[in-house]
Specification:
GO cellular component, one term: cytosol
Strand content: 15-25%
Subcellular location: Cytoplasm
CATH architecture of the largest domain: 3-Layer(bba) Sandwich
CATH class of the largest domain: Alpha Beta
Cofactor: FAD
Oligomer: single chain
Strand order of the largest sheet: 6-2-1-7-17-16
Shape: globular
Radius of gyration: 22 Å
GO molecular function: flavin adenine dinucleotide binding; tRNA (uracil(54)-C5)-methyltransferase activity, 5,10-methylenetetrahydrofolate-dependent
Helix content: 25-40%
Family: Belongs to the MnmG family. TrmFO subfamily.
Distance between the termini: 20 Å
């Protein structure tokens, strides 16, 4: 049995490792280092771009539930994440370089995986092929995809947050704490009073933005990776109730909750670098230095990376994909990862696992139903394949899980989410057992 996988991102690597463990001979194609996308910098596999956070681990959270389901399905990337873990309270965050190195070694050392570092310019439908080339797919491969899908694609813009050095922060202002005391004070917090926040907000919405190149038509910004300046322009308190929400924090200098707070998360295991949580941006670099230096504690911050914005291209999946993740009109061509509308690092990896299960079933001449809609994976598959004239990428969230009458009567939100999570875990466990049988 043999398959071809295009793209060594999270989805492609997860799929390749799972299939290879089951005796499938995998040819994994990766264009780096011969060719890089505008956002990628490293030759390693599973390179993380926007953030080093893989989000919450609590079972009553959407991200935590997704990870539990992935473990049931046989995830390898969660093992790699453990080796690269950095402190982040109740979240799973990683040292990006350590994580990428771990995944790369897993893939390159697997006897059933052949890595081909070359650009793919055409799609061969004679055998199953998985396209996991990511939302920055371009050039000849993008044209080949368009030829099969009838150009049913949507383009969005995605933004990246800046990174500062730890030694350049003002620790007389910045304090360490996690919201509600979760974790071991894994975040650094920059507290605003009301006057400081209002001045910062005014400067932020007035700051000059960088021009967007290679752009046709109207700009569509993905809600889940909204530039901070776009979010701020929606209202004076929008970011104060979003990424700058001060709930669960207490400024040790005043003994009170700040009016707003910017959180900084460790970017590496040595904790010498921190990224500005939620501060994806498309401001000009000089403007980022000027405006973000107004954040208390960042007055003299050294920026080792400024935020950037890049174009992401997604399939219009509701029109072209089946729930088994192959094209309706080209059943040997499977898709996985963010190019399908699974938005997020772990979501992308999960979609690779799901596609791998479907491909192995195909190789064995079987028809495999998708996971039940009561699971997070099944709900995400439902979302990307259900007709939607305003289709946008979607990450894991409790809102897409179906409710039963028993769950609806639970008033406490935490208890309700735990009940949803338990129902999803039971459904996924049954699906995995049925698949293995």
């Amino acid at each position: 049995m043999q398959v071809k996988i295009i793209g060594a991102g999270l989805a492609g690597c997860e799929a390749a490792l799972w299939l290879a463990d089951r005796g499938v001979q995998v040819e994994l194609y990766e264009q780096k280092p011969a060719k890089y996308s505008p956002a990628h910098k490293s030759a390693g596999f599973a390179e993380l771009i926007c953030s080093n956070s893989l989000k919450a681990e609590r079972p009553d959270s959407a991200s935590g539930l997704l990870k539990i389901e992935m473990k049931m399905m046989g995830s390898h990337l969660l093992d790699a994440a453990e080796t690269a873990r950095v402190a982040a309270g109740g979240a799973l965050a990683v040292d990006r370089d350590v994580f990428s190195t771990a995944v790369t070694e897993m893939v390159e050392n697997h006897p059933n995986i052949t890595v081909r570092r070359e650009e793919v310019t055409a799609l061969d439908e004679s055998a199953p092929v998985l396209v996991a080339s990511g939302p920055l797919t371009e050039g000849a491969l993008a044209q080949a995809v368009a030829a099969l899908t009838g150009d049913h694609r949507l383009s969005f813009y995605d933004a990246v947050a800046p990174i500062v050095t730890a030694e350049s922060l003002d620790y007389d202002k910045v304090f360490a704490a996690s919201r509600y005391g979760r974790g071991e004070a894994d975040y650094l917090n920059c507290p605003f009073n009301k006057e400081e926040y209002e001045a910062f907000h005014a400067a932020l919405i007035a700051a000059e933005r960088a021009p967007l190149h290679d752009f046709d038509g109207d700009l569509t910004v993905y809600e889940g990776c909204m530039p901070i300046e776009v979010m701020a322009a929606r209202g004076a308190d929008t970011i104060r109730f979003g990424p700058l929400r001060p709930v669960g924090l207490r400024d040790p200098r005043t003994g009170h909750r700040p009016w707003a707070a910017v959180q900084l998360r460790a970017e590496n295991t040595a904790r010498t670098l921190y990224n500005l949580v939620g501060f994806q941006t498309n401001l000009k670099w000089g403007e980022q230095k000027r405006v973000f230096s107004m954040i208390p504690g960042l007055e003299h911050a050294e920026f080792v990376r400024y935020g950037v914005m890049h174009r992401n291209t997604f399939l219009e999946s509701p029109k072209v994909l089946t729930k088994q993740q192959f094209l309706k009109e080209h059943p040997n061509v499977f898709f996985a990862g963010q190019i399908t509308g699974f938005e997020g690092y772990m979501e992308s990896a999960a979609s690779g696992l799901l596609a791998a299960h479907q491909m192995l079933a195909r190789l064995k001449g079987r028809e495999l139903p998708p996971p039940p809609a009561a699971t997070m994976c099944g709900a995400l598959l439902d979302y990307i394949t259900t007709p939607n004239k305003d289709f946008q990428p979607m990450g894991a969230n409790m809102g897409i899980l179906p409710r039963t009458e028993e769950i609806n009567i639970i008033r406490d939100k935490r208890e309700r989410y735990m009940a949803l999570s338990q129902a999803a875990q039971d459904a996924m466990q049954a699906w995995v057992k049925e698949y293995e049988a």
